[in-house]
Design brief:
By secondary structure, this protein is of the alpha/beta class. It is built from 14 helices and 24 strands. It has two domains: 203 residues, UDP-n-acetylglucosamine1-carboxyvinyl-transferase, Chain, CATH 3.65.10.10; 207 residues, UDP-n-acetylglucosamine1-carboxyvinyl-transferase, Chain (Alpha-beta prism), CATH 3.65.10. The chain is elongated, with a radius of gyration of 22 Å.
Length: 417
């Protein structure tokens, strides 16, 4: 099994270009199932989750090729509606094909999804909302067996809680439903807005009524388009934290700074110097890191996908900090490994109490999920000596060319095994 060897302590200096967003690409790829024409997608990141979604679409009958600049997706002969466990088991986003398959065929058989072990993340919100559109379903032998006897029919739906995945699934499904669907209490993450923008470009009729409320009028025709995926704001945040933790001097390029205001404000509060240009963020880390407390929350709140990375940074603050995890119930799995490196972090329910003044010590480590994996790398970059991070297949699910990008800015890191 492959592992990463990280040699600290390193200061990151130079510039990093941010890749396309994994979390925006996945629902957009699922939404291409609606089309019977060619869709051209630019800026898809080269990560394992995207490879898995492409394999899933191909198993459903999509023809997908890459010309060196863009992916060409042809669903003109796509007729299958069975998404197997083998392809959905490693990736939460596999459930996103349920909506478009029901919209297109009126039936679907989709495996219950997998992904990182960071909480239960049930799909009941997806299923309840789809049932309001006329879907009947049962869960049998690990699969969702769903059928819409009269097709999908527009209606008013209010999500009981904010869910990114359920919002995306219903937006896609409702775009082909009969009549108008009103979705309220929607997630408004930038990746959701990118999906809406994509669907509007291909000819769907979608309007924002208010901040978290959408009106979707079903259509039958889809345009052939070229579309470029937005930047990965979690990847950008990860490298910004790495620069702050290593007292680095880094330019993060190919970003839209206004979409990560919350994260930038926290970095400023802890002492990092930040200058923002149109598509670039320049960060200079400060040796004196100030303590801070925050909680994870749906956008525009602090993203749960950056909680582990910021925790590493707060270990180096001069006083105690507090993080409350309000999205997933099992997202502190990295804490044990950070404590093995010398951190002093205590967990009380969904709260982490982080004692400062940590000088991380190199160690052999075990990655538990995608974002936890990269938090261990950040800690290892600040530690003296060699750290070894095992089970790095998690990293490959969501970070494109991570070692290459880090090496380019001064990190000593290599893959082995």
């Amino acid at each position: 099994m492959q592992k990463l060897e990280v040699f600290g302590a390193s200061r990151l200096k130079g510039q990093i270009k941010i890749s396309g967003s994994k979390n925006a690409s996945l629902p957009i790829l699922a939404a291409t199932l609606l089309s019977s024409k060619k869709i051209f997608l630019k800026n898809l990141p080269k990560v394992k989750d995207i490879e898995t979604m492409i394999s899933l679409l191909q198993s459903l009958g999509s023809k997908i090729s890459y010309d060196g600049e863009k992916h060409i997706i042809d669903n003109s002969n796509q007729k299958k509606f069975f998404a197997s466990y083998n392809l959905v088991k490693t990736m939460r986003a596999g459930i996103l094909v349920l909506g478009p398959l029901l919209a297109k065929f009126g039936k679907a058989k989709v495996s219950l999804p997998g992904g990182c072990a960071i909480g239960t993340r049930p799909i009941d919100i997806h299923l309840k909302a789809l049932s309001n559109l006329g879907v009947k379903y049962k869960i049998f032998q690990g699969y969702v067996h769903a059928i819409a006897p009269k097709g999908l029919i527009g209606t008013k739906i209010k999500f009981p809680q904010i869910s990114v995945g359920a919002t995306e699934n219903l937006i896609i499904a409702a775009s082909f439903a009969k009549g108008t669907t009103i979705l309220s209490n929607c997630a408004v993450e930038p990746e959701v807005l990118d999906l809406v923008n994509f669907l509007k470009k291909i000819g769907c009729s979608i309007k924002w009524i208010s901040k978290r409320c959408l009106s979707i009028k079903g259509v039958k025709k889809i345009n052939e388009i070229i579309y470029s995926i937005m930047f990965d704001r979690i990847e950008a945040g990860t490298y910004l934290v790495a620069a702050a933790a290593t007292e680095g001097n880094l330019r993060v390029k190919n970003v839209i700074p206004s979409l990560i205001k919350t994260e930038l404000n926290i970095l400023r509060k802890i002492g990092a110097k930040i200058k923002v240009k149109r598509n670039e963020i320049h960060i200079i880390g400060n040796k004196d890191i100030k303590n801070i407390s925050f909680k994870t929350a749906p956008y525009p709140g602090f993203p749960t996908d950056l909680q582990a990375q910021f925790m590493v940074l707060l270990c180096k603050a001069k006083k105690d900090s507090f993080i409350k995890e309000d999205i997933f119930e099992n997202r502190f799995m990295h804490v044990g490994e950070l404590n093995r490196m010398g951190a002093q972090i205590k967990i009380n329910g969904n709260k982490a109490i982080i004692s400062g003044n940590t000088d991380f010590q190199a160690a052999e480590l075990m990655a538990t999920d995608l974002r936890a994996s990269v938090s261990l790398i950040i800690a290892a970059l600040t530690a003296k000596g060699k750290s070894v991070i095992n089970r790095i297949y998690h990293l490959d699910r969501g970070y494109e060319n991570l070692e290459k990008k880090l090496k380019k800015v001064g990190a000593k890191i290599k893959r082995s095994g």
